[in-house]
Amino acid sequence: MTMKIRTACIFFLMIFVIFFSIPVHADLFWQNIQETKGMPGQPDEVQTVDHYFTQNASRIETGNMATIVNFDGMNLYHLDMKAKTYNKIDLNAMLNMAGEGKDGEAFSKMMKQMMGETKIIPTDETRKIAGYDCKKYNMQVMMVQIEYWATKDIDHYKELKEIGEKMAKGFDQNPMMQHMNLAAHIKQMDGFPVQTITRNPMGGTIISTLKHIEKKKLSNDLFQVPSDYKLTESGMFHQ
């Protein structure tokens, strides 16, 4: 498999998971506690993950690292806040390159297989987590098993769900995204994920639990690369 197909697959899988863990809404902030246990080659650790979302951009921040996505320009930025460096990925270019020639055919075939193996199974199991009444959903994407504990008790949940479904339908208009059928999958899980447990097929788990969520005005500066940061050329699809 070529490097651009591998990169595109990682990107599309990231989008799919985001739709079940990060509903998009104007001026929304929430914080998760992420616990990593037994991952091969990685120390056990507990981290705080901050999520900032508006209708036009998102920012996810962990430690000294941040990822910004500009929805209008479809650009993604990885920031190293300690080194004051960043790299840029043109997501539209990635989509276009993944759809070209033999690589496009291979990618389309892989996406059909991956999404054909994706299952979301609701259960009758319930549990109170972080003060919310949650229902358990099991999800499998290829070899990765994800356990979701979702609630409807989050403020503005109905609005969040509607926006998520609209975005999913928008993605379905793109030929390279149609295989993901995001809208259909979203409808199978009714609730905001308070806790997500991801089990690595090679061993280890990542447990992410909601600590705090609120609607508040966010500064546009959060979604801009600071002027004193230096652009690096690592990665692919840079402009």
Fold and architecture overview:
Helix 1 packs parallel to helix 3 and helix 4 (157-171) runs antiparallel to helix 5 (182-188). The protein has helices at 3-21, 91-98, 101-116, 157-171, 182-188, and strands at 28-37, 45-53, 57-62, 65-70, 75-80, 85-90, 119-129, 132-141, 144-151, 192-199, 205-215, 230-231. Strands 7-8-9-10-11-1-2-3-4-5-6-12 form a 12-stranded mixed β-sheet. The protein has a single domain (3-231), classed as outer membrane lipoprotein receptor (LolB), chain A, CATH 2.50.20.10. By secondary structure, it is of the alpha+beta class.
Briefly say what this structure is.
The protein has 239 residues and is an alpha+beta fold. It is 27% helix and 39% strand.
Write down the CATH topology: outer membrane lipoprotein receptor (LolB), chain A
CATH homologous superfamily assignment? Lipoprotein localisation LolA/LolB/LppX
Outline: globular
Judging by the overall fold, what is the CATH architecture? Answer: Clam
Strand order of the main beta sheet, please? 7-8-9-10-11-1-2-3-4-5-6-12
Integer tally of domains = 1
SSE order, one letter for each helix or strand: HEEEEEEHHEEEHHEEE
The largest sheet, given as strand count, sense and whether it forms a barrel, is: 12 strands, mixed
Number of strands: 12
Helix content: 25-40%
Q: What is the CATH C-level name?
A: Mainly Beta
Radius of gyration equals 18 Å
Low-confidence stretches: 1-14, 16-25, 235-239
Tally of individual helices: 5
Indicate the mean pLDDT.
Answer: 76
